[in-house]
Amino acid sequence: MKRLEDHENFEMAFLSLLASNRLLDRIVFGGGTMLRLCHELPRYSLDLDFWFYRNTDFSDFFTRLRDAASASYEITDAEEKHYSLLLEIRRARGTTKLKAEIRKTLAPRGSSEQKIAYSPHFPSQVLVRGFTLRQMFKNKVAALTDRGEVRDAFDLEFLVRKGVEPDLNDEEKKTVTSRLGSFKKRDFDVKLGSIILPELREYYRVNRFRFLEEKLAFEEWQTEK
């Protein structure tokens, strides 16, 4: 856990750097790291994911991003791709790297709001613009459908526990339910167990995603009534 706590400190320090350089004004924070830092998701997340909030000159923004990062960190990778801007940094040679990716896509209108990013491992808070929990549910359904990672299922269950109603069409519900049933013991023991808080590991080994599965089944039953 110490390694993950230190990495979270790194994430917060980088967000603080973006804020001080007025780079957070044009982007929307999303992904598991946003859920962790803004909503206390009980798992660690290693990368930073962003979308653009308003129309922006991507190349100019990327130049400003690289300049700001290079003043405090060593840049190990920087690339303007067709669909995204990619930046990878580290604090010093031999230390853990942090990857930030900004999609060259505008966040849907009305899908974001101001939030406070916070970590007990960092001394200050950072004001960010992040996706609403309802939008994050949509994003996580798309992620689970696309890549089938156990962490995306964990995040979906977290969002439902936070009160987000699983508004899915029949095809999405079928796909999500199939994904939930496809995870193996190793997915819970290793992939998920290595990034969630220690007190939750045994629960998920035993119960898997029973809460989310029951919620989806109940929603289907309500629809059929």
Walkthrough of the structure:
The protein is an alpha+beta fold and 225 residues long. It has two domains: 2-131, JHP933, nucleotidyltransferase-like core domain (Nuclear Transport Factor 2, Chain: A, Roll), CATH 3.10.450.620; 135-224. Helix content is 49%, strand content 20%. It contains nine helices and seven strands. The chain has helices at residues 2-20, 31-39, 58-70, 133-147, 150-161, 170-182, 185-192, 201-207, 210-224, and strands at residues 27-30, 48-52, 74-80, 84-90, 97-106, 112-117, 126-131. The strands form two sheets. It has a five-stranded mixed beta sheet with strand order 1-2-5-4-3. A hairpin with a 6-residue loop joins strand 4 (84-90) and strand 5 (97-106). The radius of gyration is 18 Å and the shape is globular.
Q: If classified by CATH, what would the architecture of the largest domain be?
A: Roll
Strand order of the largest sheet: 1-2-5-4-3
- Shape field: globular
Write down the CATH class of the largest domain: Alpha Beta
Low-confidence stretches: none
Secondary-structure-based class equals alpha+beta
Rounded to the nearest angstrom, the radius of gyration is 18 Å
Number of domains: 2
Terminal-residue CA separation: 46 Å
Mean pLDDT: 94
Q: Specify the number of helices.
A: 9
Structural key phrases:
20% strand, five-stranded mixed beta sheet, 2 domains, two-stranded antiparallel sheet, 225 residues, 7 strands, Nuclear Transport Factor 2, Chain: A, alpha+beta
Itemize the secondary structure elements and their pairings.
Layout: H1 2-20, E1 27-30, H2 31-39, E2 48-52, H3 58-70, E3 74-80, E4 84-90, E5 97-106, E6 112-117, E7 126-131, H4 133-147, H5 150-161, H6 170-182, H7 185-192, H8 201-207, H9 210-224
Helix pairs in contact: 4-5
